[in-house]
């Protein structure tokens, strides 16, 4: 389960991404989402994926499953936000929340 809700030291609860290899919290551009297309994709197809820390954990996934397509976690989360059909005003509000969280 790559996303979990975590209770933080400041007593807030927030969604975190977990590396499927080492179990540590995956950090923005130091983590990847990895997947392997089937080769005969049709619009609407969805692919299973793993989240892995860059470098060492990503190498573990590649060695086990062959070379995977990858995208930095922070970029992938931008696509996730877009695919929730959030409008620009709501996205700006979310970015303001990110600034408040620090
Ligand atoms: Zn890892």
Describe the 3D structure.
- This protein is α+β, with helices and mostly antiparallel strands.
- It has one domain.
- Helices cover 34% and strands 23% of the residues.
- It contains three helices and five strands, in the order E-E-E-E-H-E-H-H.
- The protein has helices at residues 56-65, 73-83, 88-101; strands at 3-7, 13-17, 31-35, 50-53, 69-72.
- Strands 4-3-5 form a three-stranded antiparallel beta sheet. It has a two-stranded antiparallel sheet with strand order 1-2.
- The longest helix is centred in the last third of the chain and has 14 residues, at 88-101.
- 14% of the residues are buried.
- The model has no long low-confidence stretch (mean pLDDT 88).
- Bound molecules: zinc ion.
- Zinc ion (ZN) binds next to strand 4.
Number of helices: 3
Indicate the percent of residues in helices: 25-40%
Q: What is the general shape?
A: globular
Q: Quick one: biggest sheet?
A: 3 strands, antiparallel
Strand content: 15-25%
Whole-number mean pLDDT: 88
Specify Rg, calculated over alpha carbons.
15 Å
List low-confidence stretches: none
Taken in chain order, the helices and strands follow as EEEEHEHH
The termini sit apart by: 25 Å
> Which molecules are bound besides the chains?
zinc ion
As laid out across the biggest beta sheet, the strand order is 4-3-5
Q: Return the domain count.
A: 1
Structural class: alpha+beta
The overall strand count is 5
